[in-house]
Amino acid sequence: MKLSALHQSYLSRRSNSFRGSAPLDSSSDSAIKSPAAVFWLVLHGLCCLISLVLGYRFSRLVFFFIFSTSATTTNFYTAPFRNAATDLATTVLSSNPMVTNNVEVPVANKTTPSTNSRVVVGRHGILIRPWPHPNPTEVMKAHRLIERVQKEQRAHFGVKNPRTVIAVTPTYVRTFQTLHLTGVMHSLMLVPYDLVWIVVEAGGVTNETASLIAKSQLRTVHVGIKQRMPNSWEERHKLEAKMRLRALRVVREEKLDGIVMFADDSNMHSMELFDEIQNVKWFGAVSVGILAHSEDPDDSSLTAKEKEDGAGSSPVPVQGPACNASNKLVGWHTFNSLPYAGKSATYIDDRATVLPRKLEWAGFVLSSRLLWKETEDKPEWVNDLDLLDKVEDIESPLSLLKDHSVVEPLGSCGRQVLIWWLRVEARADSKFPPRWIIDPPLEITVPSKHTPWPDAPPELPSTEKVVMGVQEQEHTVKHTAKTRTPRSRRSSRSKRKHEAKVIDPQISSRHSEQN
Amino acid sequence: MKIWRWILVGLVCTAFVLRIGAVELGRRQPTERISGSAGDVLEDDPVGRLKVFVYELPSKYNKKILQKDSRCLTHMFAAEIFMHRFLLSSPVRTLNPEEADWFYTPVYTTCDLTPNGLPLPFKSPRMMRSAIQLISSNWPYWNRTEGADHFFVVPHDFGACFHYQEAKAIERGILPLLQRATLVQTFGQRNHVCLKEGSITVPPYAPPQKMQTHLIPEKTPRSIFVYFRGLFYDVGNDPEGGYYARGARAAVWENFKDNPLFDISTEHPTTYYEDMQRAVFCLCPLGWAPWSPRLVEAVIFGCIPVIIADDIVLPFADAIPWEEIGVFVDEKDVPNLDTILTSIPPEVILRKQRLLANPSMKQAMLFPQPAQPGDAFHQVLNGLARKLPHDRSIYLKPGEKILNWTAGPVGDLKPW
Asked: What's the domain of life for this entry (chain A) (predicted)?
C-alpha cells in the first residue's frame, strides 16, 4: 500500500522533474543553440497552441501516427483485438497539455537496442479479447483448484488424523421441524470430516423426518421412541435427555468410533466448532451463546434490566467452562434465570422467553469410547451408561462423569463461542402441509390486492393503510392502545382453512364490519 | 532353499511398500528443497570463501546524505544503505586490501529524494563519478583492474543507467566508468542495455518487520484465486494508456474487471498483506520498470507470483529456479490469463506452494536487520563468491587504459 502510494507519487512527480530537467538540459547544451533547437522550440509552441484549442495532446497524436508507420510490428495488433490506443481521436483529454514529453516519447524505432530483444520501448496497444467476460468452465476449474489447495492446507496445517463426528439430534414432527432440521443438515453437510448423524424422533419414526434427512446424503441412523413430545418445556427437556441417551446407546451397540456432539435441531453451529472438537481427548466443553429471545416487545422490565447491566456483562448470556489465568478449568458459566423468573415460557407455544437449562447438552462433546462397554484405556472416572437409565432427570452429560474436573475446556478455554442455542416453535395447533407440498391446490383464491384474507388476524396499526373508513381506523387504533394482551398482536400468519377463532370481542366486531 | 527364496521375495515386497510409504510421507511435507542452475546454493555460507574490502569514503557520500533525509532507510531502494552496514560488521570484511577479492564503494546514489519520497537520479552519475575519481586517486586498486574486482550497489529503476524513464535510460546506457565493475541492482531484463553481463540481481527492499506483523495463521484457507492491488492506468503521466507497463496492466483490467476469480482493484486496503496470504496467485506485472516489491511480498506470503514482464531477470536467478516457482505469462498472452491459470494442473500448483513455503526461499528475499544466515546479503556474497577466482586477464598491464573517462553526456562530467 505504501509502496504503491510511493509509486503513484513517483510517477506524478515525473511531470515536475520534466519541467525541471528542460532548463537543465538547455543550459548544458548551450553550445548547440542553433537552427535545430529554434525549430523545435517553434514547433513545440505551435503544438502547444493547437493542443490548447483542441483540448488534448495534439502533438502526441501526430507523432504517434507519423512514427507508427515505421515502428516495429509489435506495436500494432490485428483486427481481433480492440486497440484502445486508437480511440485517441475520440477521447477528450485533460486540458493541461504536457507537451514537453512529446518530442522524446513516441520515437519508438530509435530506442530498440541493437541486440535482438523482442521488448520494445514506446506505446503499445491495450490487448482486449473479443469477449472479455468470465468463462463458466474456467470458473469451475478454478474452484476445483482452490478446493484442492484448501484440502492440502487442511492436511498440512489442520487437524491431523481427524476422527469421525457423531452428531446426535433429537427431533419430532412439528411446523418448525423442517426449518430447524434443514439448518442443522446443511451445517453437517459442510463438515469436512466423516460424519454419522443419529436422529432420534419422538413419536416413532415417520416418513416426514426420514425424507428430510435423506436429502443430506450423509450416513444417518434414524431411531424412533414411542413417547410423543409433551407440550411443556420442562417435560420436553426431560424427554430430549432421554432421547439423547437412546442415541448414546446406539453408539455403544454399534461400537461407533469418533467424537459425539449434540446437535439440537434448532441450534446454530459454526464450522470452527467441528475443527475445535477434534482436539478433545475424552470429554470436552465449549461455550454456548444463549439466544433467549422474548417475542413480547412490551416487556419493559426486561429492557430495563438489559440497560442496567449493559456495560459490564455481554449482551448475550454464554454458558460454558470457566477458566482461570493459567487456562485450567475452575468452574462453569451457567445461565442465570433469575431475571426471567415467573416470566418464562411454560408451554411450547408460549410467547414468553424460552429458557435453557443450567448447562445445555449442546455444549458438551465426548469421545465415543467412553460409552463402549469394554475398552482397555477407558478412564475410571466415567459412569456406565446403564446406570443413567435409572436416573429420572439427567440435566447434562456431566452425569456421566464421577469427577467433573477432568472436563477439557475447548475453544481457547471457553473464550470462543462456537455454538448458539435458540428455541423457537410455532403454536401447538398450527398446521402445515405434509412434506411442505400443497396438494390438492388451495381452494380459496382471492385477488390479493383487494381484500385481506378472511381468516387473517388484524393488521398492526403502523402498517395499516387508509383503505377502510376513518371511523374504522380510529376504532382499531383505540383497540391497540387498550389491549395489551400479547395474543392480539400475533404476527404469525399461519394460513388456516377453517374460520378464525374469536380472539377478542372488539376485534371480531371489526371483522364483521368488513364482511 | 525354497523357503529362503520366499523370504527374499517377502523382504523385497516390504521394502517396496516401505519405499512407497516414504515417498508419500515425503510428499506430505509442506516444503521442498530449492536448487537453481548453480546448484543447491541458497544455504551456502559465504564466510571464508571471499574477502571484501570496504573503502572509507568521506561522509558526504554516505552518512551526510542519509542525515539529510532518513526516508532512504525505508523506501524500496534502501538495500544500498543496508548493504553498507552489513559489510562493515560482517566476517567477510577485511581491513587489509591486499588480500581482498572484492572492493566495495559505499556511495548512496539513490538518496536524493523529492518531497514525495522518490529518488531523483540527475545527480547520481556525477556522484558516482566523483566517488570513483576519489578511490582511483587514493588507492591503487581501481587502476590495477579498472574496476573489474569492484562491486557497486545501484538499486535504482534502471540500475546504472541512472534514469527513471526507460527511453532516456537506454539512451544514456550504463555509466561508462562502471563498464568493468560488477553491479548489484534490482533491474533485470534480458538483452537490455542497462543489464550488464555478470550483474547480480537483488530483490527490492521490503521492510521485514512490517511483513512479520501481518502474518495470519497458516491454516486460513486460501479462497482468493488471483489478487492484485495497484494502478492499471497512470493517469498523471500516461493518460491515454498504452505506455505505462506497455499496456499490460490496462489489459489485465479491461479483460478481467468483472471476473469473480480476479480480485483486482486500485484500492489501498489496510489488509493488503493479509489478503495476499489468502490468495493462490498474486499478479506481479511490470510498471514503469519490470521489477516490483510485489514479488518479494508474494514469496513471503506464499502466494504464487504471476510475472507479466517480458524477458525479465528475477533476483538471484542462478540460485533460485524461478520457472518452477512462479508462473510466467507473456505480455501478449494477458487476455488469456484466466485460461492459462486455470489450466495449470493441481500438482504443479501444490509443488509451487511447497517451494514457496521453504524458509530459505523467504529468507533469501529479505534484508533483515541484523543480518541472518541465508538472507539477501548472504546471497549477494554467495553470488560474488561464485565469480571467484578472478580471471588473470582483468589485471591490466601498467600504463594500459581501457575506460574512457570523458565518455557520456557532458552534464555528467561536472564535479559533484
From this structure: Eukaryota
With an 8 Å Cβ cutoff, are A88 and B165 in contact?
Answer: no
- Kindly list the residues from chain A whose CB atom is less than 8 angstroms away from the CB atom of residue B219: 153-154, 157-158
Nearest to B261 among A117, A127, A139 (CB): A139
- pTM of the full structure: 0.69
Contact A11 B236 (CB under 8 A): yes
Helix (H, G, I), strand (E, B) or coil at B297: helix
The ipTM is: 0.86
Residues of B whose CB is below 8 A from A107: 167
The H or E element spanning position A369 is none
Burial class from Cβ neighbours inside 10 Å (0-12, 13-18, 19+) for residue B309 reads: buried
Nearest residue in chain B measured CA to CA from A98:
B237
Nearest chain A Cα distance for residue B142, angstroms? 30
CB contact at 8 A, B367 and B82: yes
CB atoms near residue A336 (< 10 Å): 13
Give CA angle at A295 (A293, A296), nearest 5°: 120
Contacts of A71 (CB under 8 A, 6+ apart): A108, A109, A120, A122
| CA A211 to each of CA A132, A194, A228: distance values in angstroms, whole numbers, following the listed order | 45, 21, 20
Rg over CA atoms, chain A: 37
Question: How close, in Å, is residue B42 to chain A by CA atoms?
Answer: 24
| Cβ-nearest to A149 among B222, B256, B260 | B222
Ordered alpha helix ranges (H), A255-390 = 271-276, 300-308, 385-388
Q: For every one of its 416 residues, what pLDDT tens digit does chain B have, with 9 covering 90 and above?
A: 788 888 777 676 666 655 554 444 445 678 888 888 877 788 888 888 999 999 999 999 989 999 988 888 989 899 999 999 999 999 999 999 999 999 999 999 999 888 888 888 888 999 999 999 999 999 999 888 888 899 999 999 898 899 888 888 888 889 999 989 999 999 999 999 999 998 999 999 999 999 999 999 988 999 999 999 999 998 888 887 788 899 999 999 999 999 999 999 999 999 999 999 999 999 999 998 899 999 999 999 999 999 999 999 999 998 999 999 999 999 999 999 999 999 999 999 999 999 999 999 999 999 998 889 889 999 999 999 999 888 888 888 887 888 888 888 888 888 88
Q: Which residues of A touch B168 (CB under 8 A)?
A: 104
Contact A134 B260 (CB under 8 A): yes
Residues in chain B closer than 8 A to A117 (CB atoms): 190-192, 311
Q: How far is A64 from chain B (nearest CA, A)?
A: 12
Nearest in space to B292 (alpha carbons), one of B315, B272, B263, B311:
B315
Is B167 close to A111, i.e. CB distance below 8 A? yes
B187 closest CA partner among B213, B156, B224: B156
Name the CA dihedral angle for A255, A257, A261, A265, rounded to a multiple of 10 degrees. Answer: -60
CA distance B391 to chain A (A): 26
Dmax over Cα atoms in chain A, in whole Å? 114
Best of A51, A96, A145 to mutate (most B CBs within 10 Å, chain B): A145
